[in-house]
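re: the backbone from monday

yeah here it is again, tokenized this time
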């Protein structure tokens, strides 16, 4: 019996020892021991006894049969080892254990817990093993019990033969064999890696003699019976839920067997058997190889492992993934034979990691758990070919490169660039680009020519030959610096600017003058662009009293415009007004009397004002204007006499210049111009 099962039985045995005496009529708490007796067959009584709560007697035991008040001694001073036939039948281990226990019986000074443990273990062995009980001197077979009802009394003797304790069995009929113990129930079996686990419902414990254990047998497909428990299996308290009561570690795999279990009482009587037919699966047949190895080859992976040694393994299945955690795909449509130990997986991409697992198969086509993954990294037999069809599309701030994909399984492409005058090629992308396109963002450029080439890179880092060189002529997209206004003057009705371009002067091909009314306005171009070497500008298209804001913009030969210069404001002063020439005045009678005055057009930004004076009167009176026309009409001339007309130029700020000479008109005659 295993130590685990023995330990579980201690609680059960102790409870039996304290319960049974009460059935014989003695108080449970005062009983010095317990004795069971029952006829196991007509004319033969089996007797078994154990003390409780005290040391086993040094003088042995006296066994008496009590019939109608008369006592007959049938055995005296029974001690361990007296039944030589029983001792000879014991295995060496149990014989030594009994001998050591016998030596300790008379030894004083043992610790109480050690003495107690020794008694319990020895008592447990005696309760579950008839031979051990007889060799220990606590079992006896009365082969002449007579035909009258009787009981059996056991007396514990000290070293001097004096009685120290007495306990008696219940009264029995020696001619009537005792009923067998009740059987267990609900036998079930499960297969695990440890073997076949059996569970069942225990027999009732409130029977006398009490059930002390269970015997398990296994019947093979050949009909042979194998006893799985050499002595009754004691099942005690403390077993975890779901734990098998018994595990058959040596059950045959892939075979149908029959398990039988019976209850055994303390006198060795067995109950009827309960049986269960069960097919034992060989779970070990599904164990994967422990030594899977993978090695990368030329566009292939080579796997190796130890062939199957389990006769119930029918083959192997291989799965593959590009990640260690999966998902995995079966790559062997037909399982490999169990004798196989190698496999080659062709057609793989060089430089990519591949993970493999092997699973064993059983006789019912079950697939077992996978092995630990093994990784292989194949390599390519050749480098990728050179890239063809490279083209460059030049934009304002980027160069877009395109090319034809290579007919090869590659990780991507590297783009290299060579600057004007530079001897080396510089790789632009730190990681390969998978698409056959790349944008080189160059930003603003002063122009020049860049050279490009493309290299294909395989997954195993092998690089192909560079493509043919493609050139990209860059436009000049760098604008010149903004010019600077150094001086401004708005006197005399004209604005005069002085300015300088940003260095270098050669970057400025033209200059634009922007004019606005306020600094917040962007302004519009004033006149045609100035040449790049201009340093002055006069604006006559302004009005006196007006505030004007100026900015300059430089334009280079490529048409790039600079940012506007800092805004400069000026207020236009009054111009130096000239004296107009004398007008011509003519009296017209039809269809109504009027005077028509004609005169030259005024200078730019000036207007003409027509005035009249009647002879003999003081002052000039307004007739028409200010106007840019060359003719005016006085529709209400004087009715008679002589009167004069003159022209005065007026600026936008209403400042007037010197008057022109006057032209006289006499009603009824032609006007004349006075001398001077």
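seq for it, each position gets an aa:
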């Amino acid at each position: 019996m295993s130590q685990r099962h023995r330990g579980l039985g201690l609680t059960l045995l102790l409870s039996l020892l304290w319960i049974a005496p009460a059935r014989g009529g003695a108080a449970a708490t005062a009983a010095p021991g317990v004795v069971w007796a029952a006829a196991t067959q007509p004319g033969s009584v089996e007797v078994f006894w154990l003390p409780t709560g005290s040391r086993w007697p040094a003088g042995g035991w006296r066994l008496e049969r009590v019939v109608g008040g008369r006592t007959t001694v049938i055995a005296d001073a029974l001690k361990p080892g007296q039944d030589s036939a029983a001792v000879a039948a014991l295995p060496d281990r149990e014989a030594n254990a009994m001998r050591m226990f016998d030596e300790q019986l008379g030894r004083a000074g043992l610790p109480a817990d050690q003495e107690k443990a020794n008694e319990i273990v020895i008592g447990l062995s005696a309760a579950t093993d008839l031979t051990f009980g007889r060799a220990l001197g606590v079992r006896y077979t009365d082969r002449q019990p007579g035909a009258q009802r009787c009981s059996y009394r056991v007396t514990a003797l000290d070293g001097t033969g004096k009685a120290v304790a007495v306990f008696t069995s219940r009264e029995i009929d020696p001619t009537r064999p005792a009923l067998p113990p009740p059987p267990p129930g609900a036998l079930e079996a499960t297969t695990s890696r440890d073997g076949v686990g059996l569970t069942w419902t225990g027999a009732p414990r409130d029977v006398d003699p009490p059930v002390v254990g269970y015997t398990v047998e296994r019947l093979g497909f050949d009909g042979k019976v194998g006893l799985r428990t050499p002595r009754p299996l004691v099942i005690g308290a403390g077993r975890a839920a779901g734990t098998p009561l018994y595990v058959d570690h040596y059950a045959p795999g892939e075979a149908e067997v029959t398990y039988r279990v019976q209850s055994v009482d303390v006198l060795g009587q067995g109950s009827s058997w309960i049986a269960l037919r069960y097919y034992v699966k060989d779970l070990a047949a599904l164990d994967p190889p422990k030594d899977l190895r993978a090695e990368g080859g030329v566009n292939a992976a080579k796997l190796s492992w130890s062939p199957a040694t389990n006769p119930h393994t029918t083959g192997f299945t291989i799965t593959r993934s590009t990640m260690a955690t999966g998902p995995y795909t079966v790559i062997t449509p037909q399982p490999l034979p169990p004798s196989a130990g190698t496999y080659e997986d062709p057609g793989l991409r060089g430089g990519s990691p591949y993970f493999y697992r092997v699973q064993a198969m059983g006789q019912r086509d079950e697939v077992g758990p996978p092995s630990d993954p093994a990784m292989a990294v194949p390599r390519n037999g050749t480098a990728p070919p050179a890239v063809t069809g490279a083209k460059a599309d030049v934009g304002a701030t980027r160069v877009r490169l395109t090319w034809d994909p290579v007919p090869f399984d590659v990780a991507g492409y590297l783009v290299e660039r060579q600057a004007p005058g530079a001897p080396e090629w510089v790789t632009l992308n730190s990681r390969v680009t998978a698409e056959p396109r790349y944008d080189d963002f160059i930003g603003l450029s002063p122009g020049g020519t860049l050279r490009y080439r493309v290299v294909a890179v395989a997954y195993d880092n092998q690089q192909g030959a560079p493509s043919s060189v493609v050139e990209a002529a860059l436009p000049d997209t760098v604008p010149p610096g903004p010019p600077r206004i150094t001086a401004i003057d708005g006197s005399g009705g004209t604005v005069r600017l002085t300015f300088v371009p940003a260095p270098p002067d050669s970057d400025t091909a033209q200059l634009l003058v922007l004019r606005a009314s306020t600094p917040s306005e962007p302004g519009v171009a004033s006149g045609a662009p100035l040449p790049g070497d201009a340093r002055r500008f006069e604006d006559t298209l302004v009005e006196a009293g007006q505030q004007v804001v100026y900015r300059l913009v430089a334009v280079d030969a490529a048409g790039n415009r600079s940012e506007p210069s800092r805004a400069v404001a000026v207020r236009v002063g009054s111009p130096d007004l000239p004296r107009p020439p004398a007008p011509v005045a003519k009296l017209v009678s039809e269809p109504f009397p009027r005077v028509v005055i004609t005169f030259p057009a005024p200078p730019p930004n000036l207007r003409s004002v027509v005035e009249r004076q009647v002879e003999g009167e003081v002052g000039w009176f307004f007739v028409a204007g200010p106007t840019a026309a060359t003719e005016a009409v006085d529709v209400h001339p004087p009715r008679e006499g002589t009167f004069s007309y003159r022209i005065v130029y007026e600026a936008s700020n209403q400042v007037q210049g010197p008057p022109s000479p006057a032209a006289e008109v006499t009603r009824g005659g032609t006007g004349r111009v006075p001398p001077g």
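The helical segments are 3-23, 84-89, 92-105, 112-128, 130-136. Residues 68 and 150 are 7 Å apart (CA to CA).
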